[in-house]
Amino acid sequence: KQEVTQIPAALSVPEGENLVLNCSFTDSAIYNLQWFRQDPGKGLTSLLLIQSSQREQTSGRLNASLDKSSGRSTLYIAASQPGDSATYLCAGLNTNAGKSTFGDGTTLTVKP
Amino acid sequence: DGGITQSPKYLFRKEGQNVTLSCEQNLNHDAMYWYRQDPGQGLRLIYYSQIVNDFQKGDIAEGYSVSREKKESFPLTVTSAQKNPTAFYLCASNTGERNTEAFFGQGTRLTVV
Q1: b or e along B44-60 (b: 16 or more beta carbons within 10 Å of the residue's beta carbon)?
Q2: Which of A31, A41, A103 sits opposite B99 (nearest CB)?
Q3: Residue A4: its chain B contacts at CB < 8 A?
Q4: B100, B103, B109, B110: which to substitute to probe chain A, counting the most A Cβ within 10 Å?
Q5: Angle at CA of residue A34, ends A28 and A37, nearest 5°
Q6: For chain A, how big is the Rg over CA atoms in Å?
Q7: Is B42's CB within 8 Å of A103's CB?
């Protein structure tokens, strides 16, 4: 059974700092890995989707990498801003029946 | 605008009542999903459907029921058998193909009173 772990559970950084969020998964048989952002009381917003054949994806200040062999993905946020404060979740789309397994998320606080 | 609409945003249930949460999508997606989120935790899969008139249990299906009579709609009923229903419920959809991006609704917060 796929297990997805996100470390750390919470992170607080000063504005302007570059940071990395980690996501690890136990089963490398995934079709893709998706990073989401969740604001308090809201749904999930898709940030980046990395296909299993890709190693990274970039969108603006965000860069996500995927290493299936080691079971790891990272989300790099450059020049963090207070507006980046949210919970970030990763999810691996498993090869069976299109089901995704989610991590518990990392809650990021960027202080002005 | 294409997207997923969940309603209501807030829902209160009395003990012993069944309630139904609505999820509608106009993305022409084949697959739809229901997740439950408890405070400080990730998402747990309740039910999912990959095609009309078919659905499968997820990891925590007990006390819940669903239907998929139309491609765009996937309502979730929280029955009285669900002993701890207070949670945030999220609906998602994707094309059902392997390299597919999932999209989420804004959620329904259910509280037992």
Answers
A1: bbbbbbbeeeebeebee
A2: A31
A3: 42
A4: B100
A5: 140
A6: 13
A7: yes
Q: Which among A18, A109, A52, A40 has a CA at the least distance from the CA of B109?
A: A40
Residue A2 pLDDT greater than 70, yes or no: yes
Residues for chain B: how many in total?
113
Q: How many residues does chain A have?
A: 112
Dihedral class, residue B28 (left if φ above 0, else alpha if ψ from -120 to 50, else beta): left
What CA–CA distance (Å, rounded) separates B60 from B77?
A: 13
Tokens in use for B73? 């709609």
Judge whether B77 and B66 are in contact, CB under 8 Å.
yes
Rg (CA), chain B: 13
Q: Measured between alpha carbons, how far is A72 from A26 in angstroms, rounded to an integer? A: 9
For residue A31, what pLDDT is reported? 85
Residue B18 CA to residue B20 CA, distance in Å, equals 7
Q: How far apart are CA A112 and CA A99, in angstroms?
A: 38
CB B3 within 8 A of CB B103: yes
Smallest CA–CA distance, residue A5 to chain B, in Å, is 10
B28-76 confidence digits (pLDDT tens): 999 999 999 998 788 999 999 999 999 999 999 999 999 999 999 999 9
3-state secondary structure of A27: coil
